[in-house]
Task: inverse folding
């Protein structure tokens, strides 16, 4: 016996639209500020963050792609840009020569640390600004637990 799935309610759709609108609003501000002040895109910043937090400062390329929400070819290009800037490099796995790792450099750690407080400030400011918008305020309240 199969059960028919209930259709999504208008309320669910409205909340999802609010979340997507908030995401777009915040991401745009973060991306613009990181690029202008630090010369990195949002994906590069997130890759540096993931690599900084990794136990050995490295992740397999596919693992990094999964953590920042990119495809394999996109993360390969991203790590190439980080490598050109001196923030990361590619290394092969000792156990499996087919495995490729992205490894953060000291310069990459420093660049991430330099950008981190700006990222936090812009995130907070963007959420504050979004809370004044009737269509985005509900999502901000839900995120902030208010």
Result:
């Amino acid at each position: 016996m199969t059960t028919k799935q209930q259709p999504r309610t208008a309320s669910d759709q409205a909340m999802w639209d609010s979340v997507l609108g908030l995401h777009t609003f915040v991401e745009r501000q973060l991306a613009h500020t990181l690029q202008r002040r630090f010369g990195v895109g949002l994906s590069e910043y997130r890759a540096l963050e993931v690599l900084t937090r990794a136990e050995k400062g490295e992740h397999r390329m596919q693992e990094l792609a999964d953590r920042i929400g990119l495809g394999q070819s996109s993360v390969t290009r991203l790590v190439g840009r980080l490598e050109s800037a001196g923030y990361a490099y590619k290394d092969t796995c000792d156990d499996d020569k087919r495995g490729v790792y992205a490894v953060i450099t000291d310069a990459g750690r420093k660049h991430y640390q330099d950008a981190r407080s700006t990222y936090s400030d812009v995130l907070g400011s963007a959420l504050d600004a979004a809370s004044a918008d009737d269509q985005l305020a509900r999502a901000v309240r839900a995120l902030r637990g208010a």
Q: What stands out?
A: The chain has a mean pLDDT of 91. The CA atoms of residues 132 and 138 lie 10 Å apart. The chain is about 70% helix and 10% strand.
